[in-house]
């Protein structure tokens, strides 16, 4: 369902990336491994069309995202993708519950309070829905990020270094939660990371080289 073809991107004439073609079938999980600076975040942002490629295509469920205008891209992203960013992006003045409901609002969907409560209880932060995100630990915020990414039951979940700052136990837990959530909603899951601990959790892997 997700395929890329000849994706290239330039930050400047000297900072140019040519990425290997990627394919991730419906309901499959793919791990993209690379050391720091190999362009993992750049690639993830290209997959979400948060960056526009210099050349090449990103196709999701037969839609070539590079043919969409900015408004269409934003609508497609909100409806079809859940993104777990490297650093959590929350609205700090809103509660955890309202940050989750924001995902509904941005996708023009009805507020799904029951789903938010159910996810919070599955992911172990049901008692913290009234808090502000910055009153939670990093590991807890990571779990809220996962919940927010799956609020709208997207077809594709993209996760950027979801375990990099976590100890072994929490890294295993977070990757298990991502796998479990994507399986529950039938989503494809793409994780980009330098974290070699995740290798064994994924059969499908692509490596980025410097
Ligand atoms: N906005 C930008 N302008 C110019 N260069 C950038 C920009 N963002 C990233 N780069 C450069 O592109 C390269 C790849 O960055 P990117 O964040 O994609 O790597 P990464 O593999 O995710 O790294 P890390 O594991 O350290 O997060 C880096 O060398 C970085 O300096």
Automatic annotation (TrEMBL):
Name the domain of life this protein comes from.
Bacteria
- GO CC, one annotated term: plasma membrane
Q: Which UniProt keywords apply?
A: ATP-binding, Nucleotide-binding
- One Pfam family of this chain: ABC_tran
Alphabetical list of SMART domains matching this protein = AAA
InterPro entries associated with the record: AAA+_ATPase (IPR003593), ABC_transporter-like_ATP-bd (IPR003439), ABC_transporter-like_CS (IPR017871), ABC_transpr_LolD-like (IPR015854), P-loop_NTPase (IPR027417), Sigma_54_int_dom_ATP-bd_1 (IPR025662)
Q: Which PROSITE patterns match?
A: ABC_TRANSPORTER_1 (PS00211), ABC_TRANSPORTER_2 (PS50893), SIGMA54_INTERACT_1 (PS00675)
- Name of the protein described by the UniProt record: ATP-binding cassette domain-containing protein
């Amino acid at each position: 369902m997700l395929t890329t073809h000849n994706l290239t991107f330039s930050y400047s004439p000297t900072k140019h990336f040519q990425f290997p073609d990627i394919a991730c079938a419906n309901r499959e999980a793919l791990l993209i491994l690379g050391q720091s600076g190999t362009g993992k975040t750049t690639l993830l942002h290209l997959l979400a069309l948060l960056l526009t490629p210099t050349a090449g295509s990103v196709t999701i469920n037969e839609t070539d995202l590079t043919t969409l205008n900015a408004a269409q891209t934003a609508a497609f992203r909100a409806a079809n993708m859940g993104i777990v960013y490297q650093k959590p992006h929350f609205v700090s003045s809103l509660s955890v519950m309202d940050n989750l409901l924001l995902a509904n609002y941005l996708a023009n969907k009805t507020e799904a309070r029951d789903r938010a409560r159910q996810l919070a209880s599955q992911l172990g932060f049901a008692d913290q829905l009234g808090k502000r995100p910055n009153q939670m630990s990093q590991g807890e915020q990571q779990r809220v990020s996962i919940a927010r990414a799956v609020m709208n039951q997207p077809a594709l979940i993209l996760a950027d270094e979801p375990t990099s700052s976590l100890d072994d136990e929490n890294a295993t837990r977070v990757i298990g939660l991502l796998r479990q959530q994507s399986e529950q909603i039938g989503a494809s899951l793409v994780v980009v990371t330098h974290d070699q601990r995740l290798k064994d959790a994924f059969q499908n892997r692509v490596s980025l080289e410097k």
